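ok here's Delta(14)-sterol reductase:
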Amino acid sequence: CITYRSGLLWIPDSPDQIGSYFARFWDFIKQGAIPSRFAIVVYLGWVVSHAFGQIYLSGKTVKGLPMRGQNGKQLKYTMNGWKAFWLMWIILFGFHQSRILPITVFYDLCGELMTVSFAFSSLLSLWLFLFPNDNSPTTRSISGFWFGRDLNPRFRGFDWKLFCEARPGLPLWAVLNVSTCVKQYETFGSVSSSMLLITFMQFWYVVDYFWNEEAILSTMDIMTDHFGFMLCFGDLAWVPFTYTIQTRFLCSMDSLHEASPLLLAASFIIFVVGFIVFRSSNSQKHNFRMNPSKHQKKGTFIETKSGSRLLISGWWGWVRHANYLGDIMMGWSWSLPTGYSTLLAYFYPIYFTILVLHREYRDNVHCQKKYGDDWTRYCKIVPYRLIP
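and the structure:
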């Protein structure tokens, strides 16, 4: 719908048209989503180059939090994402300037790359399912494939979860947006203010991740979620190819779309406020988890019978998930500049709001089981779940 119908939803007008509808749908798939050898080479080259970056680039070595059920064992991680991210742009700029690989290739091959990423993430998930580190027989099931059998699968020291959480997916998200900007310029002779603003805000989000890369080690994804198809597909395929729907929609229109200055200003303000809430609350949580000895002041946390502490100061004394609130605000700010001509341009914030609400529910259930009466006490101190 985005690529071939400028964001308009496409459904049969009558039951008689269902057959022709799917035939035309298959034509679109053949035209733009069945991968060529070139697309396969581009995607695999992308993944392999980022893997080499994680393995060989120097960086700060950091210990993760004690692993669940591993007698306090802490894995070591090399934080070199910041260096890898900017090295990537230098290489891409060189390829683009020399015309070896113009950056618009990523826009032109978007559907094919999406298909390859789906196949790659599926095969990787299957391999991790069939050959887990812990070889647990209790998770040989559909749920074991979906959620994963290993908490932190590693192959000869290479951490698959840390790699897939960011390396191929987040940079590809940024590259697809920049590629779309260049494509719009080549098509219309200029880049719209809506396109520039969305690309800038999302680029800032990705840059912030790599600047604060160490913070990923204290998140639910790393600490508690096993690594299976859900995270693997989400990181490698879902993120780069659905989070860029807004910019692709703007480029697919018949003319440049320019949002009103008021709407652009409102979008940017929502983004800035959301980012401040998101980053400051996440930083408070990360510092509390990684350096508990620095948070000894009475009233900043409550002790639990499990031996853990629950933070009740700063953002976490006002609302249980301020970081989720900030993330939701940023998501809506990325779609507002597209205007109101199609609901598809709002796919990301709608989906993400539902995701976060469900994740908040999962968090609450998990913490209630883990902390029991202490969690009930915590909820009385901090009664608000998302909005303070």
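+1. The longest strand covers residues 60-63.
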